[in-house]
């Protein structure tokens, strides 16, 4: 059955009230559209986490794009997205217009700290997480979900949203979903459509470098030497590297003797910027 489409805040709230009539927990999957199998997996994770009813938002958020980034050409495939969400069993699709989210006179922005200032994505996209935090907080206020699912591919974003939700006492359970990959290891992303055939053939080298670094670290290799080798391998594969870093997985600070580790990378191949990350088992 096709999901109900809500365009306004009032329509969304009325739809969510109807979903709750039988006592079901409501899950939210925020997206910017151009849906792929990874997004469908987010809906499945929401169901497994206890969402009896499901809202998926589709909104290309202008405030998380810098002026030189790809907001204007970001892929928009609304009808195809609706077909995927109908098959996935979404109950409501929330697709607000920009003026619904940011009406005339809008003047409030959330400025996150902590993991938003970890020296990763924020080094290259300094306004990005303010846009993310603001729009996600608005979605939580508008939808009032019991839980919300975000993919681990955007690992720093997930950490920022978890921190914001805790700091603002928002009554939303944040659920992380593992990265979905192509058979050759490339993380699924709406931006993969930008890759030329030759770039797509080389793109899995990013994941291969992460796996090699993780294996060397688990074998007891020194982090600085391992990261230097990984950076060289990524650049040799034809990428322009933004960063390859080993961090504490919980707060994204420097990795300590306790806790979990995470390898995170961002690099450009041609005109396309790719990000990825993996868990690193401790040696």
How would you characterize the overall build of this protein?
The strands form two sheets. A six-stranded parallel beta sheet has the order 1-4-3-2-5-6, with helices on both faces. The protein has ten helices and nine strands. α2 links the parallel β2 and β3. 38% of the residues are buried. By secondary structure, the chain is α/β, with parallel strands linked by helices. The chain has two domains: 174 residues, 3-Layer(aba) Sandwich (Rossmann fold), CATH 3.40.50.620; 89 residues, Pantoate-beta-alanine ligase, C-terminal domain (Pantoate--beta-alanine Ligase, Chain: A,domain 2), CATH 3.30.1300.10.
Secondary structure: elements and pairs:
Blueprint: E1 4-6, H1 9-19, E2 26-31, H2 37-48, E3 53-58, H3 78-88, E4 92-94, H4 98-101, H5 121-124, H6 128-143, E5 147-151, H7 155-167, E6 173-177, H8 197-202, H9 205-218, H10 223-236, E7 240-248, E8 261-269, E9 272-280
Parallel strand pairs: 1-4, 2-3, 2-5, 3-4, 5-6
Antiparallel strand pairs: 7-8, 8-9
Helix pairs in contact: 6-7, 9-10
Name the features.
Rossmann fold, alpha/beta, Pantoate--beta-alanine Ligase, Chain: A,domain 2, 6-stranded parallel β-sheet, 283 residues, 3-stranded antiparallel β-sheet, 2 domains
The CATH superfamily of the largest domain is identified as HUPs
User: Mind summarizing the main beta sheet?
Assistant: 6 strands, parallel
Low-confidence stretches: none
User: Any idea what the CATH architecture of the largest domain is?
Assistant: 3-Layer(aba) Sandwich
| Lateral arrangement of strands in the main beta sheet | 1-4-3-2-5-6
Helix fraction, binned, reads: 25-40%
Strand content: 15-25%
């Amino acid at each position: 059955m096709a999901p109900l489409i809500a365009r306004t805040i009032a329509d969304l709230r009325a739809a969510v009230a109807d979903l709750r009539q039988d006592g079901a927990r409501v899950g939210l999957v925020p997206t910017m559209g151009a849906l792929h199998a990874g997004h469908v997996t987010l809906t499945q994770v929401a169901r497994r986490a206890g969402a009896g009813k499901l809202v998926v938002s589709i909104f290309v958020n202008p405030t998380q794009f810098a002026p030189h980034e790809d907001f204007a050409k970001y892929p928009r495939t609304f009808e195809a997205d609706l077909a995927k969400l109908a098959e996935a069993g979404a109950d409501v699709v929330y697709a607000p217009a920009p003026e619904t989210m940011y009406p005339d006179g809008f003047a409030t922005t959330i400025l996150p700290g902590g993991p938003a200032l970890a020296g990763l994505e924020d080094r290259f996209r300094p306004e990005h997480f303010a846009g993310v935090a603001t729009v996600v907080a608005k979605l939580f206020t508008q939808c009032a979900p019991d839980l919300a699912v975000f993919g681990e591919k955007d690992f720093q974003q997930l950490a920022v949203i978890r921190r914001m939700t805790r700091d603002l006492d928002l009554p939303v359970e944040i659920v992380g979903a593992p990265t979905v990959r192509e058979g050759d290891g490339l993380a699924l992303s709406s931006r993969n459509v930008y890759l030329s055939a030759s770039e797509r053939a080389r793109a899995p080298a990013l994941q291969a470098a992460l796996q090699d670094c993780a294996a060397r670290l688990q074998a007891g290799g020194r982090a600085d030497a391992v990261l230097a080798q990984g950076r060289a391998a990524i650049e040799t594969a034809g990428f322009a590297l933004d960063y390859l870093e080993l961090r504490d997985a919980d707060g994204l600070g420097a990795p300590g003797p306790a806790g979990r580790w995470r390898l995170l990378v961002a690099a450009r191949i041609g005109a396309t910027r790719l990000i990825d990350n993996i868990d690193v088992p401790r040696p």
